[in-house]
Amino acid sequence: MKLVPEPTIRRFARYLRLLDQLSDRGENTISSTALAQIAKASPSQIRRDLLALGALGTRGSGYPIHSVARELRKALGVDGVRPVYIVGTGRLGLALSQYTGFQQRGFRVVGVFDNDPRKVGTSYGRLRIRDIRSIAKDAAKDRPIIAILAVPAPSAQTVADTLVDAGIRGILNLAPALIKTPEGVVVQNVDITTDLLLLGFRIDQNRR
Amino acid sequence: MKLVPEPTIRRFARYLRLLDQLSDRGENTISSTALAQIAKASPSQIRRDLLALGALGTRGSGYPIHSVARELRKALGVDGVRPVYIVGTGRLGLALSQYTGFQQRGFRVVGVFDNDPRKVGTSYGRLRIRDIRSIAKDAAKDRPIIAILAVPAPSAQTVADTLVDAGIRGILNLAPALIKTPEGVVVQNVDITTDLLLLGFRIDQNRR
DNA sequence: AGGTGTGAATTATTTCACAGCG
DNA sequence: CGCTGTGAAATAATTCACACCT
User: Fold this and answer.
1) B172 shares contact with chain A (CB less than 8 Å)
2) Most buried among A14, A42, A76, B113, using CB within 10 Å?
3) Residue B5, CB, less than 7 Å from strand D?
4) Range A125-142 burial, b when 16+ CB lie within 10 A, else e
């Protein structure tokens, strides 16, 4: 597959969720127009986007949901299962460690870490909180590529450095802090306040 | 202010966070080049973006952090304080209700709701969990414009309808489900799995 | 010198519109 | 027919490059 534009990738993730839902309802095919409706996009945009996966549609009847979903997974790199570490077991870290949605989307939480000795050793569900100091050793065994960083802002950079040393290639940063990583380690920032701001703005503008 | 493009708005939220941080460190001005550095954007993009707020920069020395931050807040509609409701007190809802970051950014959680009678009445910090059935009545008093929806996917739509009836104008939807709202009620979806997918993709492509 | 404001050029993304396949 | 695939056109966003202020 050649280079896919960034906005298309964002939409890919949305399409995948929608198609999975449709699939659960027993649907087999969907037209660009119908998908556009529920995805809040234009039919031609859908066609352009899906075309990047190859010509999967059937003229006259639409797109086969199953194959498109499979190709989307392949394009997004979740055709297998990706092991993930969660670092930080505050309220947010714990909430995420219990979240079942990851598994359905190709991610599996295989380790939860903290630096607080009082927490290390206690169990939440199937996961036992491990000591952050053993993360490099553990990572050699679990081979996670991605880590979810859910620590307080002041320690974000230090912990991020530890993750990089442990061989992590991508960090989903939930801390409200900017972190620096060496070339080759990708950071994706998630900041719910940003989304709140954006929502507020859209309300004022009455944008949909 | 005339129409600001959507991508610019997204960046506005980021700039604001950075400028607040710089301000905390005692900085007074910053050049487009310096800001570009930490915001991972190009200097000319910064200048274009900030220009949409009016010509605030001083040639030769850069942008006055304070005024720019104030204008950003105005542009994003957070020059005052926005009251917010949180609906759903699972792990995630509770984590958010305790999150202190909102206040600093112009949002204040003024109510937390659930439908579980065993939870209603119990207190978390300064907030007492209230009954979802009284939300319309309460909203008439608290006048929240925004609600954060943190309920399980199957009940998302029903609860969203309740929120709309209570006069909510914008919903930050954390449930992994699509919700429909009447014209004039804005929905902003937050889905951490989508960000994980995006991160995974960027690792594969080695995009920064 | 140093750094903004801004038209013009470039590049990216979306939409149009229609040929062509099932 | 209905609906995809796709060049071509239109629109949006970014970057260039430089005049101009302090």
Assistant:
1) yes
2) B113
3) yes
4) eebebbbbeebeebbeee
